[in-house]
Automatic annotation (TrEMBL):
A GO cellular component entry from the record: cell envelope
Subcellular location: Cell envelope
Database matches in PANTHER family: THIOL:DISULFIDE INTERCHANGE PROTEIN DSBE
Organism superkingdom: Bacteria
Location, primary (coarse class): other
Transmembrane segments: none
Protein name: AhpC/TSA family protein
BP GO annotations: cytochrome complex assembly
InterPro entries with a match to the protein in the record: AhpC/TSA, Thioredoxin-like_sf, Thioredoxin_domain, Thioredoxin_ResA/DsbE_sf
An example molecular function term from Gene Ontology annotations: antioxidant activity
Keyword Membrane: no
Species of the source: Chitinophaga solisilvae
């Protein structure tokens, strides 16, 4: 009888432990909506890693859902209210760094719905960083308006000098904040997110140093691995370096090799079907092609579209007369050329070396005119 009691007690404890352990591997999201939804009571939840989508009904200004937890990720929220009343939305994210309950506040104001979390260690770090970054951006904009006039951002005609100064000020402030927050929180999921999302504002040496400060657990996460890939790609894509040969497929599934263009000046153009500025640049690129195609010059457009059908459709619509290739997995664009924004251009010499890294339209015009003496 005593053995039976001990056996039952052991099974009970085992059951409690198993149940507790299972419960610890769940993420419970409890949302509270503050403000008038005007009857638009749907909340959409997205995430990419893991890839999932859910649509919830808001009842009495609350919504709840439970997920299994596999690894830290960003939970994205978008409301029906914003879609119907504000004519669109940009999903906003909350960092989920471990199992547990996350209390989300969806606050509606005149600008739409804004999301915050009252708990979650990584989210609190990221929220503080974001708040400081917003303040820095506002301060930079104020400085630019003092220098160029209060209406500088309201004018129809762009002001390249003002835009360049604003970018410089914003990047400098962001770089300081990245060093501050990653330096203080190397073991936080927020550190990986902050580095990944703001790497463009940080010089290569600093980015490498901050990455090395991350704890092994954080380095193992997808976002930190993206940073490691960027550090490597920056080294491979600097002016003077020789990119490794690669092979992609064109629209007819035929191979396109970088080495096949050796002996010519090659302008590599990274683009995507959904990128407005990319497609807006094509008319001028067609002018360049017509001007230099008989002078040892070629263009190679590499699409980063995940959707191959969308690439093929856009390629047919543009009907550009130079070679095309598809890099849907980012093997070349991310790992070899550090493409962070679209469009991105690289000019390669006949010897296969990079001679211009991410030039703008004016810079590429000037560079080609100097090369070909026109």
């Amino acid at each position: 009888m005593r053995l039976m009691k001990h056996a039952c007690l052991s099974l009970l404890l085992a059951g409690l432990y198993t149940g507790s352990h299972a419960q610890q591997q769940e993420v419970v999201i409890k949302g509270t909506v503050i403000g008038d939804t005007r009857g638009y009571n749907r909340m959409d939840l997205y995430s990419r890693y893991p890839d999932r989508y859910d649509s919830l009904k808001i009842v009495h200004n609350t919504f709840t859902i439970t997920y299994s937890f596999e690894a830290p990720y960003r939970q994205l929220f978008a409301s029906q209210y914003d879609m119907e009343v504000k004519d669109g939305y940009a999903p906003q994210g909350i960092l989920i760094d471990k199992p547990g309950t996350y209390n989300i506040i969806a606050r509606i104001d005149s600008n739409g719905t804004h999301y915050s979390a009252t708990n979650g260690d990584a989210q609190q770090v990221f929220a503080a960083f974001s708040a400081d970054q917003d303040k820095a951006s506002d301060a930079a904009a104020k400085t630019i308006m003092q220098k160029y006039g209060a209406d500088v951002f309201a004018k129809r005609e762009p002001n390249p000098a003002a835009e360049a100064d604003l970018t410089s000020l914003t990047n400098a402030a962001t770089s300081r904040l990245v060093k501050q927050y990653v330096g203080k929180n190397p073991g936080s999921y927020a550190a990986a997110i902050i580095l990944q999302r703001n790497s463009g504002a940080v010089d290569g040496k600093t980015l490498g140093s901050l990455y090395q400060r991350l704890t092994p657990a954080i380095k193992s996460l997808r976002e930190a691995k993206d940073v490691a890939t960027e550090i490597s790609a920056r080294k491979l894509s600097t002016v003077g370096s020789t990119p490794a040969d690669f092979t992609l497929k064109n629209g007819d599934e035929q191979p396109v090799k970088l080495s096949a263009f050796r002996g010519k000046y090659l302008l590599i153009d990274f683009w995507a079907s959904w990128c407005g500025p990319c497609r807006a640049a094509f008319p001028h690129m067609r002018e360049l092609y017509a001007k230099y195609k008989d002078k040892n010059f070629e263009i190679l457009s590499i699409s980063t579209d995940r959707d191959k059908a969308a690439w093929l459709k856009a390629m047919k619509e543009e009907n550009n007369p130079w070679p095309q290739a598809h890099d849907g997995q980012g093997t070349v664009s991310k790992k070899q050329f550090n493409v962070q924004l679209l469009p991105t251009l690289y000019l390669i010499s006949p010897e296969g070396k990079i001679i211009a890294q991410k030039p703008d339209e004016a810079a590429i015009d000037k560079k080609l005119a100097a090369i070909f003496g026109i």
